[in-house]
What does this fold into?
Amino acid sequence: MTETLTPTALTLKDIAREAGVSLATVDRVLHNRPGVRPDTVRRVKAAIERNSFQPHVAAAELARGRARRFAFVMPSGPNPFMQQIEAYLGEMAAWLSARRLSVEMVPTDVFDPSVLAASLEALSDAYDGVAVVALDHPGVRAAINDLVDAGAKVVTLVSDVPSSRRHHYVGIDNIAAGRTAGALIGRLVGGRSGKVAIVAGSQGLRDHAERIFGFNQVMASEFPDLNVLPVLEGRDEDDRSEQLLAQLLGRHADIVGLYNVGAGTQGVAKALNDRALNETGRDKLVFVGHDVTALTRRLLLQGVMDAAISQNPGHEARAAVRVLLALARGEPILREQEKIRIDIVMRDNLP
Amino acid sequence: MTETLTPTALTLKDIAREAGVSLATVDRVLHNRPGVRPDTVRRVKAAIERNSFQPHVAAAELARGRARRFAFVMPSGPNPFMQQIEAYLGEMAAWLSARRLSVEMVPTDVFDPSVLAASLEALSDAYDGVAVVALDHPGVRAAINDLVDAGAKVVTLVSDVPSSRRHHYVGIDNIAAGRTAGALIGRLVGGRSGKVAIVAGSQGLRDHAERIFGFNQVMASEFPDLNVLPVLEGRDEDDRSEQLLAQLLGRHADIVGLYNVGAGTQGVAKALNDRALNETGRDKLVFVGHDVTALTRRLLLQGVMDAAISQNPGHEARAAVRVLLALARGEPILREQEKIRIDIVMRDNLP
DNA sequence: CTGTTAGCGCTTTCAC
DNA sequence: GTGAAAGCGCTAACAG
It folds into this structure.
């Protein structure tokens, strides 16, 4: 017994004949274009429904024959996670070019709202779509809305601006990510009681703030024996993070867990390393951070880091492109496919 | 400053002109078809290289105009994970039909090698591609090789037959999955010592055997305080799993961890539930299993189950289709995209 | 409001 | 060995 999931192929012409109209009229109805009498519309739609007709995407794409340009507005700095996204976009070159798509990187300072807003405003209407790693700020929101009004499709990437009219967000639920980090640390300290440190880039960044929020939620409700210390703001810089953390570790002997919310991982690891000399086995401090980079991979393998909460950068890069393309073509977005998951990565399931 | 990742579009005709030949000849070279003089080939290839020319996939697809049929050979039983894969294939119906692709389900008894082999042999040469949840057995291997010889593209799904000549495997590394389960249990028992139970479907199934292998590796090397008990074989059946496990729990009072390798989760949970009445908080037995289903989702939320090792069924369904399609068209496979990850799912990062 | 028609960039006969 | 030419199924002018 076999069950067919898809019917066999019809063409526009078949529908046209069946509805007693011409090709062009079917095309108009198919794309909700004006200039068709209501009952003609009904007749054509009926024929389409009846045959569950699906236009051939390849033919449509070819006939439309338009190349599309997308811009990716991303931080210019040395953030390894962003560099990974860029690298994965680079790997798509052949795929893109076989579809007559182009992707251009627009580096900018995403930490400065006015600079970011200016970068967005500067994108002439030359782009069909824009992906942006966005700071949640009124100026940025306005710039995004302007792009949308100008007809561009806009997706936010990694960091969202929910109050804007962006068409889609490609990234994780950061509150849930923080909760996951909290649950991991809580479980992995194994019943010890003590203090937990948090190092973040800045609480002004929406994603960082959300992660901390989720983390504290879980800590408060599920691990009352653990005492969360005030957040250290390391600005995602190695030196500053190291210094602040080293100080804190010096002041508190009973820190059993550490949550590194953003980057600056090198510095965090150094500060830990200095203290780790006095520790062994089960008494080890539990260290959870974000993202799988060359550095965090090494730290996981060495056992310095216990888990990384990660969002798959390759998936994010491809999802952003696919979503922009679907939006530009007016095709449906496969939400299930484009959803970014919160990955827990430990030594044994390193990708 | 903007950086373009993709050049602008050329067509076959441009290449033809540049190489001083006709369209047809460029096409022949492009697809390594015979009947072109070696130095003509060279000249054309040079022109293609020089312009890093990429043929327009939509045009190619349209001109080829061939519909493609894929078969999915999968277990007929009530296995919820397999049903999820089927459901996700169903959700692709519109996507498939817009590309003139069809997917047909071929239910079979994948646990009986001769039945499975017969199902495979019975697939006439009507299919361009076949995805199969395979048992690793000589008869099955032979059947797969026959399909390959007959010109079909073959991918193994979820469970591999590495010794066959299948073109691709869509699924996780089960040894690493078992290691991950071991590391989780080891870490989550939090320094207690005691015994660890394993419930599997059958050690004859390659994926189950590999998971157990990886699990034992980690246990032996990293958690010497934990004593792994002999594997219970529940045949993925609820009743049998419950009964065996209840017995075991009765005999050993100091079981601190449980690894459920396959299905039969309902039975496992029942056996645990009976015993859990006597337990509280930190003394709770650590329970790790596989896959996110309606049941395991509930168990995770209730705190009965601590983590699920999972492979994303939606991703597996789509990856299998995309890989078959790429193979059929002779396009490259995006390995990074099609790779199935080992997901660790806990309460807070439930998808 | 509706229909006719010329392509889009490849693939595939069929001739030479 | 190589080339010319007829489509593939849809879109977008342009007529009517």
